[in-house]
From TrEMBL:
Pfam families for this protein: Psb28
NCBIfam families assigned to the protein according to its UniProt record, in alphabetical order: PS_II_psb28
InterPro entries attached to this UniProt entry: Psb28_c1_sf, PSII_Psb28_class-1
Name of protein: Photosystem II reaction center Psb28 protein
Lineage, top ranks: Bacteria, Bacillati, Cyanobacteriota, Cyanophyceae, Synechococcales
Species annotation: Cyanobium gracile UHCC 0139
Subunit structure: Part of the photosystem II complex.
Membrane topology listed for this record: Peripheral membrane protein
Name of the coding gene: psb28
Length: 124
């Protein structure tokens, strides 16, 4: 099973997000912020309400309910989702998902201050 992100169960989001991580000094807690510019989930033909962001891979599912829309001229243009972890185990699980998602979508990883990753247009 390829890693996927969904806003509607059973419908993979095709827009690849920009993902930024922040962690506490001790590394136990932190957040991943996903920004989807003009995602399919906001397309007029999308039906239903967005109740969360679902990250799926071979290990199962991770869910966040923290999803906000950004508006430009009164029209939703982006989605921003925040996934929070509260333990080292949760962080490691998230990173395994992020690695699978990156590999499945041809992305690279750019760490803080790492500008050498030429193909890493998106941070994962």
């Amino acid at each position: 099973m390829a890693a996927a992100i969904q806003f509607f169960r059973g419908v993979d989001e095709t827009v690849v997000p920009d993902i930024r991580l922040t962690r506490s000094r001790d590394g136990r807690t932190g957040q991943a912020t996903f920004v989807f510019e003009e995602p399919e989930a906001l397309a007029p033909q999308s039906v239903g309400d967005i109740t969360g962001m679902f990250m799926l891979d071979e290990e199962g599912e991770m869910v966040t309910r923290e999803v906000k829309a950004r508006f430009v001229n009164g029209k939703a243009s982006a989605l921003e989702a925040t996934y929070t972890w509260k333990s080292t185990a949760d962080f490691e699980r998230f990173m395994r998902f992020a690695q699978r998602y990156a590999e499945g979508h041809g992305l690279g990883f750019a760490g803080q201050g790492d500008e050498s990753a030429e193909e890493a247009q998106e941070e994962v």
